[in-house]
Amino acid sequence: MTEKTYLTSSITTTMTTNTLRSNGGTIATTMPAIPNSREPKNEHCLNEPCHKLSFNYYSLRILILFLLGSLTSFIIDHLLTENHITQYPKDIVKLVNTAAWIPPTCGFSAVLVGSLFPLVDYWFLKKPQEFQREWSNVMRCLGGFIGVAYAATKLPWNSNSQVSLTLALISVVLWFLFDRTFHGFVMSVLFSSIGTVFMYVFVSYGVYSFTEADFFGVRSWIPCILYASCVCFGTVGRQLMIVPEEWFEERE
């Protein structure tokens, strides 16, 4: 064997051998272990597919938000119609003394608000909103929202402006007690404004009407009711963890 051939053989042996062990003159070669690409990367996927877990996770929470929004719409609409604040056409389809389109509309709105609030927490806070994160506080917030609607419809007021100023203050207090985030305040104002515009459109097309309307065809305190509802369902969405904690952990 020439020197050149010996050198080439040595280089080849060095490149292809991972470990050389000498034992009584015998050389054993050990190759590196090749990872099995078929092994699952997530242990919980062994028992149940990940996509199925995700579907179950979100579907249950969305259903809860939808049902909660629909149920509260019955209460609010009953307060409005019982006190002759809103009126519907006589030929409108009703569902338990409520216009049939109101519960699903409020249900989808609750899903939208309850999903967007934790999503914005994810983008701006980069961590779950921990303030008042207990179901007892969520129930108090829900009671506060219904209380705002009850005060607007049941208590004697001298004028709509008096109701508007009082409810605006109460709604901000509700935000301070259960939210306290700047983006939560802005989103509640934005959604309540959009909701008021939709109400104006519905009134314009005769879907329903407000008695003693003093603000673009609606009562001037209606935006306060919508604002309180945004704070309420945003709090519910955060408590339900529409955005899983794993999302926040991945960003850290």
Outline the secondary-structure elements:
Blueprint: H1 3-16, E1 19-23, E2 26-30, H2 50-82, E3 86-87, H3 102-124, H4 135-154, H5 160-178, H6 182-204, E4 209-210, H7 222-239, H8 245-251
Antiparallel strand pairs: 1-2, 3-4
Verbal overview:
- By secondary structure, the protein is mainly α.
- The longest helix has 33 residues, at 50-82.
- Helices cover 62% and strands 6% of the residues.
- It is globular, with a radius of gyration of 31 Å.
- Helix 3 (102-124) runs antiparallel to helix 6 and helix 4 packs antiparallel against helix 5 (160-178).
- It has one domain (65-251).
- The two termini are 60 Å apart.
- Strand 1 (19-23) and strand 2 form a beta hairpin.
- One of its GO terms (cellular component) is endoplasmic reticulum membrane.
- Keywords: Endoplasmic reticulum, Membrane, Transmembrane, Transmembrane helix.
- Pfam families: INSIG.
In a few lines, what is going on in this structure?
The protein is mainly α and 252 residues long.
- Number of continuous helical runs: 8
Helix content: 55-70%
Q: Tally of extended strands?
A: 4
**What is the alpha-carbon Rg in Å?**
31 Å
Describe the sheet with the most strands: 2 strands, antiparallel
Coarse morphology: globular
Query: Which spans have pLDDT < 50 for at least 5 consecutive residues?
Result: 1-53
What structural class do you assign from the helix and strand content? mainly alpha
Our estimate of the beta-strand percent is 5-15%
Overall pLDDT level: 78
